């Protein structure tokens, strides 16, 4: 059961009763998504590029996706977005988030009208955007494709430790292109060591409100 909850910046998130955790920071869902994934991830990697491929771990409400779609649309960047999600939310819950307020109606309508089909195959949402939400766990996910950026947005290590093991981090990192970027809201010594062991250079960046630091790591060439 997921319960709609207000966060400190006025945006909503969901509380997942089974896991015992929110989908986003209680200090601000919208702020966290923009800070960690859009600013530190997408804007950083897309500088000077006209095409970007994103692999997200945990599609959830689609907040990271719609903000990415809006940014790429405004900047004329072609976006190829894949997001692994074993427990897709219903379209009714997604419609209740209020996230339609954070993007243009054109972006929101393209998302909502293609969401359910995206769970079974890649969909063209606009000439600049493809979306696919493989209905699987990260551990079972496989593809020949390599991505420019990974948004690692799993539930926290306290609530889903298996999503932060060295093996699963290495598995996720194997889908990045050389020079590609891994971003996540979390930073621990264990995570830094796991990412370094995969040949990444790590950066500690200021975290979103409520977190001192976050991790950005760049895969060696
Ligand atoms: C912190 S929430 C992600 C929030 C999401 N990015 C958003 O903007 O709403 C974690 C997500 O990971 C998904 N998840 C749970 N187990 C997973 C697994 N084994 N592999 C991939 N995703 C998983 C959950 O269903 C949930 O949607």
TrEMBL record:
Question: Matching InterPro entries, A to Z?
Answer: MnmC-like_methylTransf (IPR008471), SAM-dependent_MTases_sf (IPR029063), tRNA_MNMC2 (IPR047785)
Transmembrane spans: none
Please indicate which superkingdom the organism of origin belongs to: Bacteria
The name this protein carries in UniProt is: tRNA (5-methylaminomethyl-2-thiouridine)(34)-methyltransferase MnmD
Q: What is the lineage of its organism?
A: Bacteria, Pseudomonadati, Bacteroidota, Sphingobacteriia, Sphingobacteriales
Q: By its UniProt entry, which Pfam families does this protein fall under?
A: Methyltransf_30
Domain (MnmC-like methyltransferase) ranges: 142-219
Organism annotation: Pedobacter rhodius
